[in-house]
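Figure 2 data, in text form.
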Amino acid sequence: MIRFAHPDLLYLLLLVPVFLVLFIYVLHWKKNAWKRYGDYSVISRLIPGYSRNRLILKFLLLLVALVFMVIGLADPQVGSRLVKAERKGIDIMLALDVSNSMLAEDIKPSRMERSKQAISKLIDELRSDRIGMILFAGKAYTQLPITTDYAAAKLFLSTVSTDAVPVQGTAIGEAIDLAVKSFNESNEHSKAIIIITDGENHEGDVLTTAKQAAEKGIHIYTIGMGSPEGGPIPVFQGNNRTGYKKDRQGNTVVTKLNETMLQQIASAGQGVYVRASNASAGLSKIFDEINKLNKSEIESMMFSDYEDRFQYFLGISMLFLILDLLIAERKSKWIRNLRLFSPKQQA
C-alpha cells in the first residue's frame, strides 16, 4: 500500500501546466519580437549560437525535475508490514433509492444529492465500523460489499446516479433481503440497515421482510427523503433540464414522501424513522441510535509500518537538474566546428 506523508504538497503539481503555458507564451512572444526586425529565418542565422531546441529541452528537464521534487517532498511511503488489527464496531449496510423520483428538488439541491451528501458525512464519522452499499429502484444491486475501506466507499458513492438501476420502481423489500444476505451470519457483530428513500411506489411485502430481518438481530432504520407535499420530477437530456415528467394525460407528475410506510418499516425492523429536511438529513440521529448497539470485535488487516521513499524521487530530481546545468542554451564553438557527416574535401 502506498500513501503520502504530506499529500497537501501534491497540489504544487498544478504549477506544471501553468509553467508550460507561460513558457509557450514566452517562445511565441520572442518569435514575434524577432519578426519586427525582419525575416525570422534570416535573423536566427545571425545568431549562430542560439538553439531553440536546447531551450525547450532545458525547460522540459526543469519541469520533470519539479515533478519529481514535489512528489519527493510529499514523501511517498510504502507499507512494509501487514498485521491483524482488532477493532470494535458495527456492520452497516446502506440501501439508497436511485429511482427517478429521487431527482425531485423539494429538498435542496435534490433528494439524490442530499442523500449522497449525508452518506459522505456518515462515512467521515465512522471509525471502526464496516460499511456496505446497495442501490435499488425496481431492482436491488450491491454497489459496495461490506468493508472497512472508507476511501473506496466514498469513491463508489461519487459514481451513484439514477442511471445506476435501469428498472424503475421502489423495491425496498428486495433491498432489505439483499442487505441481510450481505452480512456474514457466522459472526456476532451488531448489524444495521439504513434505508434512504422517498418510499413512493414501494413493491412487495416490505413489512414481512423487515420483521424477518429483525428476528435475525438486524435493526432497520429509515430516512425519508422528500416532503409530504412533494415536488415534480425533473427530466434531463445530458446535463440540461428539458422539463418535468408528465403522465399520459399531460399532467405534471408530483412525487410525495410516503412517510407512513417508512415509519412502519422502521417499527417492524426495531429501528427508528427520521425525515430529512433542508437543514438536516437525519443521519446524525440514526447514527446516535446505531452507536447504542453493542459493538463487537472486527478483525481486519492493516499496515503497521511504512518506509519512506522520498529519497528516490529527490535523487531523480537532482539528476535532471544536473543535466539541465550541463546543457548550455547556446551551441558551443567546438560542437559547431565538429562536422562528423560533412563530405571530405577533394585533394
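Caption note: The two ends are 70 Å apart (CA to CA).
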